[in-house]
Amino acid sequence: MKGKRMFGGGGMEEREKEGGAELAEGRLRIAVRALAEYACRSGSIEYGFRSSAALAEGTRIHKEVQAAYGEQDERELFLREELEHAGVSWTVEGRCDGLLREGGTETIDEIKSVSRPLADIPGDGWPVHWAQATGYAAIYAEREDRAEMRVQLTYVQKDTGAAVRFARVCSRAELRASLLGLLEAYAPYARMLAEHRRRRDASLAALDFPFGAFRPGQRKLSAAVYRTLETRGGLFAKAPTGIGKTMSVLWPAVRALGEPADGAGGGKGGGAGVSRLFYLTARTTTRAAAEDALRRMEAQGLVLHAVTLTAKEKICPQEEVRCDGAECPFADGYFDRINGAVLDLLGSETLVTRETVERYALKHRVCPFEFSLDAAYAADAVIGDYNYVFDPKVSLKRLLAEQARRSALLVDEAHNLPDRARSMYSAALEKDPFLALQRELKASAPALAAAAKAVNAAFIALRKEMDAGGGGAAGLRPAGGGAFAADEAPAELLAAARGFLEAAAETLAAGGAPAAGVPSGEAPAGAADPAAGDAGPAGRSGEATLRQEARAPADGQQRLLDAYYAAKAFVAAGEWFDERFALVLERQRGSSVKATLQCLDPSALLRQTGRQYGGRVFFSATLSPLPFYMDQLGAEEEDRSLTLPSPFDPAQLEVRVLPLSTRYADRAHTLQPLARALADAALEKGGHWLAFFPSYAYMNAAYGQLLAELGREQGQADARPESGPPDEPGRRDWSGGAPSAAPDGPGRRERDGAALPAAAAGAGGADEPDAPGGERAFPLPDGRELRLQLQRPSMTDEDRDRFLAAYAEPPGEDGPIRLGFAVMGGIFSEGVDLAGDRLTGVAVIGVGLPQLGPERDLLAAYEQRQGRSGFDYAYVYPGIGKVLQAGGRLIRSESDRGTLLLVDDRYAQPRYRRLLPEEWLAAEPR
Q1: Closest Cα partner for 22 from 386, 273, 329?
Q2: Known InterPro entries for this protein (predicted)?
């Protein structure tokens, strides 16, 4: 039997999966199907297509076959047996599709729906299906004391409804031998889990706080976290930078693992009853902080399986991501080797970082991304991005569904989640790809071409209403910047998109597996296991493959797939569309139009997801103001909040405010005094400095201005940086145009047309010959040097490390003065710990307001309708969060000293001052 990871229609449409495996009180509870899949899986990763409609079709077929059963027959018969074998105590259970009784003969019936022709079924069916069916029969024969059983596989072709049945008569001894064979195959894995659980629980009982003493506030936060998990509630904690919030949250959560809950009270009054932790972050840097905290606990004797998940694009060892056994040696034969690989990994390692996954993946020649998911299924803690839980397009639904109610969510840097969630729940669709498909498929697939034409026609109708200034059937109104908006979903466009999905699914399914490297993981919440392909359900138990965009040839099939997935996401967003959404229409190149179903308020969807879990902790140093973030993150009425003061003496911090306007209209006039102020502050205090700007464009302009000033002072002919290559991501030519937002940046656009000083012209980057993170050095009269560094868009992890390496050692009294230019909300403003003398000063330029635009204005209007301050919710609060995060890089320990320079005249306004931390206000000169 060959295994498949499915990403869309045309495979084996199974019903919702049985539970996987769970170890409790020394007994392993496992589903018959999970047992069969583990023992029988083999073959390669071969991504095929399966639509959501095909999954629903499989459920329908099961019900139709069962409806034809007689009155004497039983449907969905639950079976369970407890036994001892191979040194393991087992509870094997599951529901068989049917128990048929006829003429004194009893038959276990297992139904499988297939999209391939029935004639293509090998022999009398796939071994994994016989293993599952005989497993049910073995349990039934043992329970009812039957000497023999008839076992039947019913395959139904989903397009024609035709069926074929294969039957075997097996003695009780044969059935028992088959079941014990499955247990024998699973036993090494089960023994590993049991031994790990024994060692883990013993280590947890003896685990003390890994530091000698709690910092002020740490004990209070730890107690609040534990109590939250114990009561399966929610906690929103504002824990200031430097308190050690990662350890304060992880330590009590780890202590809660394995403690039995008081079942009647849902955990109240008993143990926390937590079986797994999901530590979710927005950035690699904060994931590393979680790994470091676990490593410290491990040094204290903790034994814990923790797996860090890394995006497929980052961890794939191939030059191009092509997830198919025919093209990738790590996908070829994956299922032949994965059981041994997981056993080796989890039997030898505890903290499984990206590097660990890569090392074992190379050793066993398995796909590291899929390998990490398989390992995570057995882990006590999973560290990864927000999207593994909250993004409906890519979340690990099958991995999480079975244990969500006994799992805890620990959401770090939670101030990032509202904007990320808006992006997750929004979807966009463009006109031109459907026009291209309409023309391309007119002769070869006329039905599909007609469906694409309907989508194109719906766009044309919307474009005509835009040309007329709005006010038509779609209810469009101008939204600024040439965009239009509406409060209602575009009914005609959504209907056309649904029709296109149906037609495209039929075409793609009929065409067989798409080209290698296409998106994967089309398993919606509650749907069947996507690992079940035409060749049999060989995938991991209880797991769903992530939908990952992979590079592939831009051929016709790929264009169809791209359009299919875009339409699918658009239709899904249309299902959620209510007063918390808005339609945004924008003209694109030529005559094209982009329609976006923009999520304005993700709180209800975040709350819906959070309710699936046994406990939720949202924490950050910048959940300020706390009521705003609790509202945005979907807090329940009974959820608790906690605000902790800074653990540090205000005397450690000096705060200066430079009342210089950084508003866009004033930047051309204030650029020179800003550049001089930054240099003066660094030269006065010495040491290492970081200056944070609200955008790349503004940062580049200030950097260019400072280079020009330094060049004039030192008589250099040309100290101005040259523009980078025109195709570099995020590059901006000062002659006009808008920079693209880098993934790690604030995601805003600068307006065109503002005159900037000549010194800033072409200041898109440094002219140093080395890679991003390199520096420019300028000699000073006292013999020291002033060294400048510049953050670039789309910096790799290596570039980031190179940038920070310059701050690794304190500069010393005669050492160089370093001034780094970075972006608020970027990779250097969060999760970067430069304790001690590694960072002397931080400058924050501006109040962090997001760029004005239709989406933000719609958000402001929505919040205003809810009775809240629209401008504060859409602009001020998100902006000040970036300010607090950047300023928080400075004081990281009790011995730190530093200067914080806030550059903006708005810091004197009550609207902004009231949002600043008390310790900042206390450190400001009187």
Answers
A1: 273
A2: ATP-dep_Helicase_C, DinG/Rad3-like, Helic_SF1/SF2_ATP-bd_DinG/Rad3, Helicase-like_DEXD_c2, P-loop_NTPase, PDDEXK-like_dom_sf, RAD3-like_helicase_DEAD
Instruction: Kindly report the backbone phi and psi dihedral angles of residue 6, in degrees, each rounded to the nearest multiple of 5, phi listed first.
Output: -95, 145
pLDDT of residue 269: 45
Give me the residue label for tokens 């310790």: 919
Among residues 809, 811, 770, the alpha carbon closest in space to that of 789 is found at 770
Global confidence as pTM: 0.85
Joined together, the tokens standing for residue 523 give 């398993």
Determine the Cα–Cα distance for residues 435 and 453; give it in Å rounded to an integer: 7
Asked if residues 843 and 903 have their Cβ atoms less than 8 Å apart, the reply is yes
For residue 667, what are the contacts with CB-CB under 8 A and spacing of at least 6?
Answer: 698, 701, 754, 756
Same domain, 187 and 224: no
Nearest to 304 by CA among 202, 234, 200: 200
| Nearest Cα to Cα of residue 574 among 592, 595, 594 | 595
Q: Show the tokens assigned to 834.
A: 């430069």
DSSP character at residue 872: I
Give the residue from 147, 166, 193 where a domain finishes.
Answer: 193
Determine the Cα–Cα distance for residues 201 and 164; give it in Å rounded to an integer: 50
For every residue of 313-368, DSSP letters joined together read: HHH--SSS---BTTT-TTTTTHHHHHHHHHHHHHHH-SEE-HHHHHHHHHHHT--H
* 153 vs 171: CA distance, rounded Å: 17
Verify that 720 and 676 share a domain, yes or no. yes
| Sheet of strand 841-845: strand arrangement | 653-658, 898-903, 841-845, 688-693, 817-823, 785-790, 775-779
Give the model's pLDDT for residue 741.
30
Measure CA 519 to chain center.
16
CATH number at residue 838: 3.40.50.300
Q: How far is CA 149 from CA 106, 141, 369, 684, in A?
A: 6, 7, 42, 89
Please identify every stretch of the chain with a pLDDT value under 70, giving residue numbers as ranges: 1-20, 47-55, 260-272, 397-402, 511-554, 713-774, 926
Residues contacting residue 223 through CB under 8 Å, at least 6 positions apart: 252
Domain that holds residue 245: 195-417
Q: What is the pLDDT of residue 748?
A: 35
